[in-house]
């Protein structure tokens, strides 16, 4: 009972992934096969790439609803540049620049004009989607060179492991280290807990928030490239609804929508959990409409479950004094900050 009381929600989420894999294997013999695992990793690629950066934005007390449109615009930019130059390298560069500029515009509007990020990114969500149609019209652009699109079908070194695994691991480690082991990460937590207190502490709040939006846009651009490779086409209506899946995964991982709380390992585990659930449902012949219902339910659960976990921990009381903590340790996923937060390091 004492062990259960000490188990935080960000530690529970990885256990849910393991449990889902075990149950899925018992329920369907095709679930843990190499082809299905390869498909699962590919299907969560764009979501996880954006979720890494979105975690920083939400912890800082902001939100970015334009990431799906940014990813689509980056994909369309890639296709547009390739169509007019014949160079995939220039197309990839165009996609990255597009993502960076979209993030920078969001950042300027939020930090420069002092507008609410929710209202700003709802507006830019529509703006960037409109630019997609301006670039490519109503149709899709394909085919791309096989050397480019084959990255979605071939594994690393002839194995079943998709190439998208490489950026997922690299960016996951990079963002995790920055969030939990650097001064910049501590600044992000401090800003999410109290912007005013962060300013009094000498933290450049406006600059940090602007940088978060720029990086978030850049990662949406990377996701747009991955999306183009996976579907072998660029289309103006691509990646619709991606922002909801990213935000749902972050909230389910215990990242507080009010800011100041979150862990990168829980976010990565949450994306894997959502992907495994969807994969298992597809194997059991769930329709697209049924999958939408499940996604909506998980989105609701992403808000309710961490809050309930926090209340249970509060009612259970503090851990017994006979079992010392190694380091400050995080508070509840809704009401407190994690171990890299400024408040817990005092």
CATH fold descriptor: ABC transporter involved in vitamin B12 uptake, BtuC
Instruction: Please report the number of helical segments.
Output: 14
Strand content: under 5%
Regarding quaternary structure, what we see is: single chain
Count up the domains.
1
Give structural notes:
By secondary structure, the protein is mostly helical. It has one domain (about 1-345): ABC transporter involved in vitamin B12 uptake, BtuC (Orthogonal Bundle), CATH 1.10.3470. The protein has 14 helices and no strands. It has helices at about 1-5, 10-25, 35-60, 65-85, 90-110, 115-135, 145-150, 165-180, 185-195, 195-200, 205-230, 240-250, 265-285, 290-315.
Would you summarize the structure shown here?
The protein is an all-alpha fold and 346 residues long.
Features:
346 residues, mainly alpha, 14 helices, 69% helix
How are the secondary structure elements laid out?
Layout: H1 2-6, H2 9-27, H3 34-59, H4 67-85, H5 88-112, H6 117-136, H7 146-149, H8 165-181, H9 183-193, H10 195-200, H11 205-231, H12 242-252, H13 264-283, H14 288-316
